[in-house]
Amino acid sequence: MHCSATPLPFLCASIKRKESHLCLHRTLLLKKKTLNPWKVRRMSTIPFISVCARAVHDVKFMDSHGSTEMDLLVVGPGVLGRLVAENWLKVNPSCRVYGQTRTMDHHGELGRLGIKPIIKGSDSRNCFPFVIFCAPPSGSEDYPAEVRAATSQWSGEGSFLFTSSSAVYDSNDNRLCLEDSPTVPMGRSLRTDILLMAEAEVLKIGGNVVRLAGLYKFDRGPHMYYLKKGTVDVCPEHIINLIHYEDAASLCKVILAKKYRGHVFMGCDGCPLSRQEMMEEVNKSGKFKEKFKGFAGVVGPLGKRMDNTKTRNEIGWEPKCRSFAEFLHISS
Ligand SMILES: NC(=O)c1ccc[n+]([C@@H]2O[C@H](COP(=O)([O-])OP(=O)(O)OC[C@H]3O[C@@H](n4cnc5c(N)ncnc54)[C@H](OP(=O)(O)O)[C@@H]3O)[C@@H](O)[C@H]2O)c1
């Protein structure tokens, strides 16, 4: 028996008294628009009783914690996820931000940042108006399933955002790459298959995707990887695209807050540069104790030149760090 197939009054009469109270609550939530009709349609295959159970749980939660409408769940509160959480708390000081992890290793740090830590699979409250998935595929046996599980933690109200990667774009000749450029065909690479399957899980429930370029900050990113190696056997002419962690976080925050449905965005600083140029900037800056020696490769796949003008215009966002070179110049 499904919510959408049977009139509510009939259903309520056919279940026990306690359950009819839950039914009324669901109707009230719909009237108050705290329960999104879109979400109700999406949940039409869920047995009515489980919708009711969730509603009662949400009521209990709201009773003990006050309003929950801007609450955010960060799945994978690593470097990016924590920055998104901090940004969110700044603009929504009365909301709660939850950080869902696999291990308890960083729960102390999360708590100190004002993020309520939750272990994956342990949370009794499983419905959040805003959800961002920031856990990388590494270390996950079934990444699309992890992402699917996170979509079931979204209430369907605010918005859901999945942080994907620009690796899904099928471009390896240093050509221009836009939001709607073709993606790598399924079956060519396990890495991109996994990302595209995860994206599909999100888009099919009305969530959004942001395909991020290489994330960096002073002590983390591709420049640090090359610097630690000293010499790397890859092609120096390969074009890479970057976005500073802080800018990626502000981009994610804006996308989340605008409550889009089923959009694909692109996150980059718009200043692509070759590997060679990036490491020359690092050496020139004099800000790192190591010196990069050089690239040993001569051939190899080239990259792409990402341009996210469409994303910027649509959401009204600009990165603060306009290029890697500018960042190195101003960082201390
Ligand atoms: N780094 C890049 O250049 C880049 C480029 C494009 C896209 N991205 C995407 O951007 C996002 C953020 O990257 P990041 O560098 O900020 O990541 P990160 O710092 O490595 O984040 C790791 C965090 O994810 C948690 N985690 C890992 N698997 C999890 C799971 N299955 N469920 C819940 N938590 C899990 C870890 O928790 P524990 O403490 O429990 O291990 C940790 O808190 C990721 O989605 C990544 O794929 C990154």
TrEMBL record:
Domain of life: Eukaryota
UniProt KW NAD keyword: yes
Keywords tagged on the record: Isomerase, NAD
An MF annotation (GO) of this entry: isomerase activity
Family matches, as InterPro entries: NAD(P)-bd_dom_sf
Signal peptide annotation: none
SUPFAM superfamilies per UniProt: NAD(P)-binding Rossmann-fold domains
Family: Belongs to the NAD(P)-dependent epimerase/dehydratase family.
Protein name: NAD-dependent epimerase/dehydratase domain-containing protein
Species name: Picea sitchensis
